[in-house]
Design goal:
Order of helices and strands: HHHEEEEEEEEEHH
Largest sheet: 4 strands, antiparallel
Radius of gyration: 21 Å
Structural class: alpha+beta
Shape: globular
Number of helices: 5
Distance between the termini: 25 Å
Strand order of the largest sheet: 1-2-3-4
Strand content: 35-45%
Helix content: 25-40%
Number of strands: 9
């Protein structure tokens, strides 16, 4: 019976909760909600995560918000930044970018958990990193290749790794609040469950 309850909970539309979370941040909630709602396109919200962070630019503080939404068929990412006026737009403005990715395209969901004092028994993680890959962005890490001969001076070229790194988000209890890590891990679990191969 617990499996049926969990599935029923997963299938309910969490759009009202998402809207409440956007309102709580106070970061242009109408602008962000409008963009996210359009990107969701009428599907129900299975899970979501809202991350509001300040960034420092010289002597000014600017804010950035990432919203990740899981629907039954897609992963929606929305990023909102605020900007000073410029030559084209003289008044301060926001820019919101949204991306919709088919769940069938998601190739990896990597979750890293940092737990302090691990010998003291089970404790909640104090930091977490979620990295999602779907093949749009790849990172190449190169280093000089070599051989086992310490006297060899030949040029062996380069060796490296190619990693999918489309989206990555790190949160910590110290910087983002006590519920932030648990919220990100909960979202990651929902996404992982829906991207089974």
């Amino acid at each position: 019976m617990p499996d049926l309850r969990a599935r029923a909970n997963e299938d309910r539309d969490r759009a009202p909760e998402l809207r409440e979370a956007l309102d709580r941040t106070g970061y242009y909630p109408e602008v962000v909600a409008d963009a996210v709602t359009e990107a969701v396109g009428g599907e129900h919200v299975v899970s979501f995560y809202v991350h509001h962070e300040p960034t420092f630019e010289r002597d000014e503080v600017r804010r950035h918000q990432s919203v990740i939404v899981l629907t039954p068929s897609r992963l929606i990412l929305a990023h909102t930044d605020e900007h000073e006026g410029d030559d084209l737009l003289p008044e301060p403005y926001t820019s919101t970018s949204t991306e919709a990715v088919s769940l069938s395209a998601v190739s990896s969901v990597v979750v890293t958990r940092m737990t302090t004092n691990p010998t003291a028994g089970p404790q909640p993680p104090v930091e977490a990193v979620l990295t999602i890959g779907w093949g749009a962005v790849h990172r190449v890490d190169l280093e000089p290749a070599g051989c086992n001969d310490p006297q060899c001076e030949a040029d062996h070229g380069y060796t490296g790794t190619l990693a999918s790194d489309d989206f990555s988000l790190r949160v910590s209890a110290a910087a983002d609040g006590s519920d932030a890590v648990g919220g990100l891990l909960s979202f990651a679990a929902s996404l992982s469950a829906r991207t089974r191969v």
